[in-house]
């Protein structure tokens, strides 16, 4: 066993066809397959050490010890069971993403945790196997093992629910401008929200069918470098996901007035011939999907509404990597 922490860095991803709903909440098997773009700007560094002298797992986030989270334990347990030992672990994580604000902090966090923990346990796994371990912490983390456009095959069991690369975006000019409207943790976790959507929205079966069709069309668009279709499907898919929380009982929404202002801006830019689209996750922040040629004009419009530090340009990002201790 390693006597120092083993570190991994994973980047966030934003889904272009969203995951929303579980078939199995223990193993985190989704109701539908999903597809995302890994981004370069936001990431998490996580260090793990298994230690026979520890009696219980320890979790440190951004330099502070915090109570162990069940999701972290689930991910560590998956690694321990594969490695065939029961040692407790020390986990230290540094987030370069605003937490729990719909910016996919759990995606980068659990992809980094799974990768660092497997390496610390001396397990040699390929990306597909790592994605199955990351999945045990958080569904969206399955996709953050890889860079570029990534599909999470929903499957129906631990073995069949994994991620793989669909395409490397070098061929395609695509980026996302993240508009940070809130850095506060969300009031309702995506975990609870998607469960309520599955259980109470009468539109849930329609979502599942449509997400399946969206995925097929999205892959076709990616493979033919068709930016307009990628943006169009991503936008309609996101709004249909948000229609599930609006149609749940009790009903709620992650969108706030600023989110709607960004959405209106994107629509009006598009009416004026600037090709851009929006997507949103479990939080009010909006990501604008665009191409580099339109980046500066979109930013100029955003700057009239929002402060510079809340406008972040994200390009396609890499898959997870083992790194040196980032604190040194
Ligand atoms: C809206 O992966 O955070 O970002 O599996 O319960 O941890 P858990 O949920 P999580 O949900 C992500 C939802 C989403 C869509 C997506 O990333 O596909």
TrEMBL record:
<protein>
    <recommendedName>
        <fullName>diphosphomevalonate decarboxylase</fullName>
        <ecNumber>4.1.1.33</ecNumber>
    </recommendedName>
</protein>
<keyword id="KW-0456">Lyase</keyword>
<dbReference type="InterPro" id="IPR014721">
    <property type="entry name" value="Ribsml_uS5_D2-typ_fold_subgr"/>
</dbReference>
<dbReference type="InterPro" id="IPR029765">
    <property type="entry name" value="Mev_diP_decarb"/>
</dbReference>
<dbReference type="InterPro" id="IPR005935">
    <property type="entry name" value="Mev_decarb"/>
</dbReference>
<dbReference type="InterPro" id="IPR053859">
    <property type="entry name" value="MVD-like_N"/>
</dbReference>
<dbReference type="InterPro" id="IPR020568">
    <property type="entry name" value="Ribosomal_Su5_D2-typ_SF"/>
</dbReference>
<dbReference type="GO" id="GO:0019287">
    <property type="term" value="P:isopentenyl diphosphate biosynthetic process, mevalonate pathway"/>
</dbReference>
<dbReference type="Pfam" id="PF18376">
    <property type="entry name" value="MDD_C"/>
</dbReference>
<dbReference type="GO" id="GO:0005524">
    <property type="term" value="F:ATP binding"/>
</dbReference>
<keyword id="KW-0444">Lipid biosynthesis</keyword>
<dbReference type="InterPro" id="IPR041431">
    <property type="entry name" value="Mvd1_C"/>
</dbReference>
<keyword id="KW-0067">ATP-binding</keyword>
<dbReference type="Pfam" id="PF22700">
    <property type="entry name" value="MVD-like_N"/>
</dbReference>
<feature type="domain" description="Mvd1 C-terminal">
    <location>
        <begin position="177"/>
        <end position="309"/>
    </location>
</feature>
<keyword id="KW-0443">Lipid metabolism</keyword>
<feature type="domain" description="Diphosphomevalonate decarboxylase-like N-terminal">
    <location>
        <begin position="10"/>
        <end position="163"/>
    </location>
</feature>
<dbReference type="GO" id="GO:0005829">
    <property type="term" value="C:cytosol"/>
</dbReference>
<keyword id="KW-0547">Nucleotide-binding</keyword>
<dbReference type="GO" id="GO:0004163">
    <property type="term" value="F:diphosphomevalonate decarboxylase activity"/>
</dbReference>
<comment type="similarity">
    <text>Belongs to the diphosphomevalonate decarboxylase family.</text>
</comment>
<dbReference type="InterPro" id="IPR036554">
    <property type="entry name" value="GHMP_kinase_C_sf"/>
</dbReference>
């Amino acid at each position: 066993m390693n006597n120092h922490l083993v570190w991994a860095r994973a980047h966030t991803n934003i889904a272009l066809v969203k995951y929303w709903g579980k078939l199995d909440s223990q193993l985190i098997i989704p109701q539908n397959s999903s597809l995302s773009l890994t981004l370069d700007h936001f990431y998490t560094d996580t260090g793990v050490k298994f230690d026979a002298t520890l009696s219980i797992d320890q979790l440190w986030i951004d330099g502070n010890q915090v109570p162990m989270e069940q999701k972290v334990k689930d991910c560590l347990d998956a690694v321990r069971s594969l490695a065939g030992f029961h040692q407790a672990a020390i986990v230290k994580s540094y987030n370069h993403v605003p937490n729990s604000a719909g910016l996919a902090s759990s995606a980068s966090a659990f992809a980094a945790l799974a990768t660092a923990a497997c390496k610390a346990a001396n397990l040699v796994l390929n990306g597909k196997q790592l994605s199955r371990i990351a999945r045990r912490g958080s569904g969206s983390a399955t996709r953050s093992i890889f860079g570029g456009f990534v599909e999470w095959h929903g499957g129906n069991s631990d073995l069949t629910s994994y991620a793989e690369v669909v395409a490397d975006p070098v061929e395609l000019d695509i980026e996302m401008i993240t508009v940070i409207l809130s850095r506060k943790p969300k009031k309702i976790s995506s975990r609870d929200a998607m469960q309520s959507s599955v259980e109470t929205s009468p539109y849930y079966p329609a979502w599942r069918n449509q997400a399946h069709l969206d995925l097929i069309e999205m892959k076709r668009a990616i493979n033919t470098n068709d930016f307009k279709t990628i943006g169009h499907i991503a936008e309609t898919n996101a709004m249909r996901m948000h229609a599930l929380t609006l149609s749940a009982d009790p009903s709620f929404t992650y969108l706030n007035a600023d989110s709607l202002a960004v959405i209106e801006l994107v629509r009006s830019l598009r009416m004026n011939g600037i090709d851009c689209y929006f997507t949103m996750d479990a939080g009010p922040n909006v990501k604008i999907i665009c191409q580099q040629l339109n980046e500066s004009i979109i930013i100029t419009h955003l700057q009239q509404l929002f402060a510079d530090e809340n406008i972040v340009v994200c390009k396609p990002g890499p898959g997870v990597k083992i790194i040196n201790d980032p604190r040194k």
